[in-house]
Write a structure and sequence with these properties.
Alpha-Beta Plaits
Length: 122
C-alpha cells in the first residue's frame, strides 16, 4: 500500500553521520575546515558542520572531514568510521549508503595541563 512519501532531510543524515563518526575511537572530532592552515576542531554541537551529504530517494553519499588523535592508525580509524557511519545511516533511515568518504583534516595532540604550583612565600 502506497500512502505517501518519506523524505529525510540532508541535515538529519549529516547529524547521524557526525554522531556515528565521533563514536569511533581515535576520532578527536569533526573538522570545520582549515583556518590558517590548521584544522578547526568542532565541538559536539556542530556535528553536521564537518559532514557533506547527498541524499536521494533511496541512497545517500557522505563526505566526512575529521581530526584524529595523534598516534592512531589512520587507515584503521577511517575504515571503522566508514563502517559505523554506513551502519548508522542504513539502520536509522533505511537509505542505501553508496559511499562514505573520509577526509583527514588534522591531528589532535593531547596536551596535559600541569597543575599550578602554589606561590612560594619568602
Amino acid at each position: 500500500m502506497d500512502i505517501g512519501n518519506v523524505r529525510i532531510a540532508d541535515e538529519v543524515v549529516a547529524i547521524i553521520a557526525g554522531l556515528a563518526a565521533t563514536e569511533v575511537e581515535g576520532v578527536a572530532g569533526m573538522s570545520g575546515g582549515l583556518a590558517g592552515g590548521i584544522a578547526e576542531l568542532l565541538g559536539k554541537r556542530n556535528l553536521s558542520k564537518g559532514v557533506k551529504v547527498e541524499v536521494g530517494d533511496r541512497e545517500a553519499a557522505v563526505d566526512l572531514f575529521l581530526v584524529v588523535n595523534y598516534g592512531v592508525s589512520i587507515p584503521e580509524v577511517a575504515l571503522n568510521v566508514q563502517r559505523n557511519v554506513s551502519r548508522a545511516i542504513s539502520s536509522m533511515t533505511g537509505l542505501n549508503v553508496v559511499e562514505v568518504n573520509v577526509h583527514i583534516q588534522g591531528v589532535h595532540f593531547h596536551v596535559e595541563e600541569k597543575p599550578e604550583e602554589p606561590a612560594r612565600v619568602r
